[in-house]
Structure formats: structure tokens, C-alpha cells
Design a protein that fits this description.
The chain has 310 residues and is of the alpha/beta class. It has two domains: 113 residues, 3-Layer(aba) Sandwich (Rossmann fold); 106 residues, Alpha-Beta Complex (Hect, E3 ligase catalytic domain fold), CATH 3.90.1750. The strands form three sheets. A five-stranded mixed beta sheet has the order 2-1-3-4-5, with helices on both faces. It has a two-stranded antiparallel sheet with strand order 6-7. A two-stranded antiparallel sheet has the order 8-9. The protein starts with 7 loop residues before the first strand and ends with a helix.
């Protein structure tokens, strides 16, 4: 039986473009090319590089390119600097490992000093993967614990600062942006007059107002402003899964009062919350888009305001 000629896929990755020394791309590349030449006795290799990509998933362009070529039967070996360069997720690595076995590709890690061409090498790989996954989860727990402690003390956890505020890098606190604070007050005032986040967004666009990131206003964006308790000095952290995900259990949410400078009076913020809630319960469910059947609930002056807004 004729042995297949060795061809090595070298994969290197760093999570930022600025990593240096032994974690840098040039260092990894040189070391792995030397390993291919002098340990695996192979001059036929292709180097794949993903700079600035995390290993939390496999959504990396050169990784995907490499795997496509492995599936085509091009390579006999996959060589990496160490395991966490290719994956920090046990599930993703298992999927990749199953594919490597299917295509007869030997996995080699230089730093852990093993290859899977032997039963012992494969066993060592599985043991290391379990501990790598454990370390990743423990690190995530430590980070969460640190952020939780900071939030409970009223510290800011690095999320985007909302409209009306800026981050003071020198003092490391949230401060009021006076110009944006005027816009926040305007949004709340308009909503109290119109009862419609969609109409408020329309009026803001007509008046040339932009969001904090310079975008156009939408009804959902307005609602995010109206629902945020930061404007009455309340810091709420860990409220949702991700930026706009599902709400978390109240027991997981951290709420601190009077730790942020307030822009609004609490009475106005609470009135707006009641108005939003009543809208959602259907008390104004018969209104048409940009048309408000509120003749029994609003004054003639407000009716004139709504008419001019159209």
C-alpha cells in the first residue's frame, strides 16, 4: 500500500492585531514552519492565518478556508501552536476533530507536544480538552463575579454609555452631556404629548435630530430611551441576555439607585412608564398609523399639535 505524501496545514491565530512576543503571528508562523520542516520532515505546507479573531467560535475566514481544503483531501496533518489557538470551545473542537478523523488527518500541537497519530496522543488530547474547557468556564465565572461586584458598588461595566451621558476617562465615572440631556428631555416631553414612540421618532427625524451614534430615530430606539431608568439616576445591569435579548430573572438583575446623575424628574419618568404600559394593554389600540383617536383624552391644543405633526 502506497503511503500518501505528507502535506501540512499550519493554522495560527491571535485575538488582536497587537499581540507580541510568543503569541504573535510572525513568531507562531516561524516556529510552526520550522516544526513542519525539521520534526515532521515536510517541506510541503500551507499556512492559514486569522489575525484579530477570537477562538470562541469557528466563524473565522482562514479557518473555514482551511477546513474546506481538508475536506477536499489536500492535507495529511493539521499543525497548531497550541490548542487554544484553534478553539476554546469543546463542542466546536469535537466537531472539527471528528472531521479530521473522517479525512485521515493527524492533529499536532507543538506546545502540548503530542500528535494524534498514536492512541496515547489522542487520549492526551481528550484530557487536555476537558481541562481547557474547565479553565474557560472558570475564567468566565471570575469575570462575571468581578462585574457583578462592580455593578453592586455602582461602578460602570463598560457597556455603551446612553444618550445624555459621557464617560469621564479621568475620573472613571458617568457624567451628563448637557447638549444630549436637552434631547433626552425633549423625547420624554414629546412622548407625553403624543403617546406614540413612532410619532416621536418621526418628529425627531423631521427636526434633524440624530441618535447618539449619528443614526436616524425609530420607534424602538425611542422606546429604549423612554424605558431606561438611568435618566432618574438608577444603574441597571445584567437586565437582558445580550444587548436586546430576553429579560433575565429579576433575581439576576443588579439595580442601584442614585449612583448616576439624573436628567429627569422621577415623577415624569414614572408617568411615561405608566403611559407606555397603558398603550401596550390596548387602551389606545384603535389608533391608526400616525393617527391618534384621542379626542376624549387630550386638549384642543394637543389636537392641534398632532395635526401639525402630520
Amino acid at each position: 500500500m502506497r503511503l500518501k505524501k505528507i502535506k501540512v496545514a499550519i493554522y495560527i491565530r491571535v485575538s488582536t492585531h497587537h499581540q507580541v512576543d510568543k503569541e504573535s503571528l510572525p513568531f507562531q508562523r516561524q516556529e510552526l514552519e520550522n516544526y513542519a520542516k525539521y520534526v515532521l520532515n515536510c517541506e510541503d505546507y500551507v499556512t492559514f492565518e486569522d489575525a484579530g479573531y477570537s477562538a470562541k467560535n469557528t466563524d473565522r475566514p482562514d479557518y473555514q478556508n482551511m477546513m474546506a481544503r481538508i475536506r477536499s483531501g489536500e492535507f495529511t496533518h493539521l499543525l497548531v501552536w497550541k490548542l487554544d489557538r484553534i478553539s476554546r470551545n469543546l463542542r466546536d473542537f469535537t466537531v472539527m476533530w471528528d472531521e479530521l478523523k473522517e479525512y485521515g488527518v493527524t492533529f499536532v500541537s507543538k506546545m502540548e507536544q503530542f500528535d494524534t497519530s498514536s492512541a496515547m496522543g489522542e487520549a492526551m488530547l481528550r484530557i487536555i480538552l476537558v481541562f481547557a474547557e474547565l479553565e474557560r468556564k472558570l475564567t468566565a465565572e471570575r469575570v462575571l463575579s468581578m462585574m457583578l461586584s462592580r455593578a453592586e458598588k455602582g461602578g460602570w461595566n463598560g457597556s455603551r454609555v446612553p444618550l445624555g451621558y459621557d464617560w469621564n476617562y479621568e475620573k472613571k465615572v458617568i457624567v451628563i452631556n448637557k447638549e444630549e440631556a436637552v434631547l433626552v428631555q425633549k423625547i420624554f416631553n414629546l412622548y407625553e404629548k403624543t403617546g406614540s414612540s413612532t410619532l416621536v421618532a418621526k418628529l425627531l427625524k423631521e427636526q434633524g435630530e440624530k441618535t447618539k451614534r449619528g443614526g436616524d430615530w425609530m420607534g424602538t430606539t425611542v422606546l429604549q430611551i423612554l424605558r431606561n431608568p438611568i435618566y432618574i439616576g438608577i444603574y441597571r445591569w445584567n437586565y437582558r441576555e445580550g444587548g436586546r435579548g430576553t429579560k433575565k430573572d429579576p433575581g439576576e438583575v443588579v439595580i442601584n439607585e442614585d449612583v448616576i446623575p439624573a436628567i429627569l424628574e422621577r415623577e415624569q419618568w414614572e408617568r411615561v412608564q405608566m403611559q407606555i404600559d397603558s398603550n401596550r394593554k390596548g387602551e389606545w389600540s384603535n389608533r391608526k398609523k400616525y393617527t391618534h383617536d384621542l379626542s376624549t383624552k387630550i386638549t384642543p391644543d394637543l389636537q392641534g399639535f398632532l395635526y401639525r405633526a402630520h
